[in-house]
Each structure stands twice: as C-alpha cells, then as structure tokens.
Amino acid sequence: MKKWRNVFLVLAFGAVVSLVSFRVGENNVSVSTINGSECKAPFDLDLMWKVKNSLSSVFLEKDKIDDKKMGYGAIAGMVASLDDPYTVFLPPKENKSQNEDLQGQFGGVGIQLGYKDKTLVVMTPLAKTPAEKAGVLAGDLILKITDKQKGIDRDTVGISLDEAVELIRGKAGTEVTLKMFREGKAEAYDVTLKREDIVIPSMELEFKEKDGKKFAWIKLYKFTEQIYKDWPGIVDKIIAEKGNNFGGIILDLRNNPGGYLQASVLVASDFIDKGVIVTQVTASGKNEVYQVDQSRRKLLSEKLVVLINGGSASAAEILAGALKDYKRAKLIGEKSFGKGTVQQPEDFPDGSGLHVTVAKWLLPLGKNIHKDGITPDVLVKYEPPKETDAKDKPDNQLDKAVETLLKI
Prior knowledge:
With 408 residues, the chain is α+β, with helices and mostly antiparallel strands. It has three domains: 18-22 and 30-81, no CATH class; 105-199, Roll (Pdz3 Domain); 203-407, 2-enoyl-CoA Hydratase, Chain A, domain 1 (Alpha-Beta Complex), CATH 3.90.226.10. The chain has helices at residues 45-58, 67-80, 92-103, 130-133, 161-168, 227-241, 261-268, 315-325, 396-407, and strands at 9-10, 19-24, 29-34, 37-38, 88-90, 105-108, 111-116, 119-125, 141-147, 152-155, 175-181, 189-194, 196-199, 203-210, 213-220, 246-252, 259-260, 276-282, 287-291, 304-308, 330-333, 341-347, 353-362, 378-379. The strands form seven sheets. A six-stranded mixed sheet has the order 14-15-16-20-21-24, sandwiched between helices. Strands 5, 18, 19, 22 and 23 form a five-stranded antiparallel sheet that branches. Strands 10-9-11-12 form a four-stranded antiparallel sheet, with helices on one face. Helix 7 (261-268) runs parallel beside helix 8 (315-325). The longest helix is centred in the middle third of the chain and has 15 residues, at 227-241. The radius of gyration is 23 Å and the shape is globular. Residues 1-39 have low confidence and may be disordered.
C-alpha cells in the first residue's frame, strides 16, 4: 500500500476508509479497528462468503463469475453505503482515469462531473473540448449514457462518478450520446459527442485593452499539478507588463471544477497580504489552517475582479471565497457550484484507489458553502453568443468585468 499522498484534493470525486485490522474466524469475521477506533458491531464477512459460494454453485451463467470483479464490487458497495457521492472505491481502470484527470490529460468529451440532488450533473464543460463546442453548460443534468459501439445504454439513476466517467470516456474518434435536461427547457434532449484526446492547460494569460487601459485576463482552467509550475511565471509576466496604463486583473474561474487545495492557496497568496485562506475541519474537530504564503504576495495592490459561475467548484470556490471575504476583489457572474468538502486519496498496489471525504473547509469568515455556493457581488447571467456573432465570440460577463475595473 502506498503512503497517503500529502496533498488533499477538493474535487468532485473522492473517498476512503482504511480497514486497519481483521480477525477471521471459522463462522464470523470482525473488524477490530477502523482508523484506530473500535467498531460498534462485528463486520460479518461470513455472509458475504455464503452469498459468493451460493452464486458460484447455482448461478446459471458461470462464465460471468469473476472473483476479482466480485471483490471490487463488494468493496465499492461497502463504501457506497456511506451515502456520500464523493466517497468512492475505484478499481484499477477507473483509478487510472482519475489520476489522468488530475494530471490534465485523458481521452473523452471534456466534462467534469458531479451531483445535484443525487442526479448526475455537468459541473464544468472544459474549455476547447467537444462538450463546450456542442454547447453543454454547467448545471446540465445527464439522464442517460448511450454508446452503440460499446453496447452501452445506461440510465444514470444511482450511477457512481467513476462508472459515469468510465462510460463517457473512450477512444478518440468514437461517439457517445448523452440524454440531458436543462433548467428552462420543456423536455430532455440528446447530445452526441465525438471523443477527442483531451489535454487541459492549467491556465492561459491574455492582455486586453479598452479606453487606453491594459488588463490582464487570467483564465484558470483547473487546479492541477501544473499550477505550481505555471502560476509564478504568469505573475512575472503581469509584473513585466505593468505600466501607467495598467487597469487591473481579471481572474476567470468560470467552469473551473477545482483540484488541489494547496494550489488555490498558492494563487490567493499573491493577492492577499496576510491571514487565513482556508481552514479544514475533520470529523474529530481538528483544524488545519492554511495561511497566506508570505514568500508570494506579489500582486497586492492591483485592481482585481473575479469571474465565477455554476461550474466554479471546490478549490475555485476557496480562492473566490477568500478574495471576497477579505474584500480584495469584486466577484462577477453567477452563483458557484457549492462544493465544500475535501477528499483524500489512497492508491493500492493493484492499481485500485480509495477516496474518502475527510474534512469540510471553511472560508476565512468561517462559512462552509457546501451545497450553497458563493453568490457574486454583481450578478450577471451569461448570454451565449448568437450564431451571427460566432467570429467575434462576445462575452457579456467578461465585458462586465472590464467595465467594473474601469470604474474602480
């Protein structure tokens, strides 16, 4: 078993319970401790073996009996009984997909998944991917996944995140059809997407000009491992471009599904002078406080506006929420997703993984925004460009951000 990773995740995936020791008898099996605590009742694995033996004996299609698959299913079921959609066991294939997602490269359609009232939902359509090009939006519900080539026609009621990811991803060039429902539409509709090799950049920087002022527009796509390498260079480029006509910074967190918690602290530390960025609170009540990194603090005086929407989640909400609590920036756009828990992963030698919700996080003023989200200071609903505007690609939320900076 690999050591616990020293990085906490704030993704829409997660989960983990570590069984510390077992006592196995002829007729019953009990767990003596779980994470160092005694169990309240025996964990009867004897029943599981009886069921397994019965299936092996009388099940009609014996060629379908796969001991390893059964074992993974039993573990997944145990974890699923906690009724936390972010606490999951991932068999090797699904765990590999999860790790590829964090590294920023995988094959699929470019959708970050989550749940809304236990229904599979698009948290974020990733930039420049088949999903975004097809007009998929954050908040769209996914009701069914169909892949004729694979023989898949799966209703998403009760589906786990890892299963949904596995079904939607696939070889580049193949197609998957999603039955979706969007608030405001009368009925569900189908969207067919052709898969591509998805490579997600951590961020992009673009300088815009208006009314004689220059603005730095930073599009943060996701808090992946690459953030630690890319962010300092972005800051240096902004500093090098600053002059008398510099109008400020637009930090665009729209459709950013989160990622590494520490990465959000890194970015926040360049805008906030001192203090707490986020506090993690575990079930035992133990607090882990993340303070401003005093070695950063390079953009403390620049005017700042932050763009958020329903696809801004977890680590993105930590960053936006901290900047709002310290009154360091104005938030513009739409209410964020509302993901206020922390998941910690563990990898096992066979390639499988276990992710568990280990903590909730609190913003500097003490609020946990789980299921509530963050309300922007200036509410601006996104207006998709018309087909006649396709070349110009107007963005009314971005325009509002520039307008706000000009008035600060």
